[in-house]
Specification:
This protein has about 270 residues and is of the alpha/beta class. The protein has one domain: Arginase, Chain A. The protein contains eight helices and nine strands. The chain binds manganese (II) ion.
Length: about 270
């Protein structure tokens, strides 16, 4: 693994850490603004935040031991090879530390497909995926391309070890609605059982709060709305998290800072 950047005040080796972050800067199927540097700018925004959380009176850097696993060496324009590398890297991380809590920074949303499939192979049990997004991402293909940031959710439904919950959806197609109905995709956090994984497309927020995203969509969630939902699933059953579709291109822009706050709150509440 390539260790490229120092994000946390104190870092531990992977086998001694409790939390790891992994960047996956793949954006080859992105149709809007490039999200290639999301992992870089989310890391930079994390450096800007104090570890102390006023609400819980905890410092996340005292509460947990961190290890930055760097970025996956993605292959631009080649999802097959990139998917393989994501899968191998995640398995390598869990081989080193089976108890690690991973947080993934995109890149585009397609990376979540590889991440979640790898996690179900590793955990060998059913995982409830809570997918925050403006978009369903359930198209079987887009412009003739099977694997894209608009289709990843459809392919995830082939994984029999996941249950999908979608929150914040406000853009879809008749075809995707049919698929959502067929697979009984829920839009509530009620009655969740077992392990939980959270995938956050930052365009779930209203563009007022998160303007730097690949494909912004008006009439989105407000910050309090999102964080009150997120808080409900930050417990011992949460096994991982991803933050994707951040198109920031400067240090400490609004969307990267919001993503960094999601990172911090999840760890403060966990
Ligand atoms: Mn989206």
């Amino acid at each position: 693994m390539l260790h490229t950047i120092r994000t946390f005040p104190f870092e531990y080796s992977l086998n001694k850490a409790e939390i790891t972050v992994l960047g996956i800067p793949f954006d080859s199927t992105e149709t809007g603004k490039s999200v290639k540097y999301g992992s870089l700018f989310i890391r930079e925004a994390i450096k800007n935040l104090p570890g102390f959380d006023l609400e819980t009176k905890t410092n996340i850097y005292e509460k947990f031991k961190f290890a930055d696993s760097g970025d996956v060496e993605v292959v631009p324009g080649n999802w097959n090879l990139t998917e393989k590398k994501i899968n191998e890297t995640i398995k390598e991380i869990f081989k080193e530390n089976p108890k690690i809590f991973p947080i993934f920074f995109g890149g585009e949303h397609l990376i979540s497909l590889a991440v979640i499939n790898a996690l179900t192979e590793i955990k060998k049990e059913k995982i409830t995926v809570i997918h925050f997004d403006a978009h369903r991402d359930l198209m079987p293909e887009f412009l003739g391309e099977k694997f894209s940031h608009i289709t990843w959710g459809n392919h995830l439904l082939n994984n029999k070890n996941i249950e999908l919950i979608q929150l914040g959806i406000r853009s879809s197609s008749p075809e995707e609605e049919k698929t959502a109905k067929k697979f009984k995709i829920k839009n509530t956090l009620k009655n969740i059982k077992g392990k939980v994984y959270v995938s956050v497309d930052l365009d779930v927020f209203d563009p007022v709060f998160a303007p730097e995203v690949g494909t912004p969509e008006p009439f989105g969630m407000k910050q309090h709305e999102f964080f009150s939902l997120l808080k409900k699933v930050c417990n011992k059953n949460l096994i991982g998290l991803d933050l994707v579709e951040c198109s920031s291109d400067k240090i400490n822009t609004q969307t990267a800072l919001l993503a960094a706050n999601i990172f911090k709150k999840v760890l403060a509440w966990k």
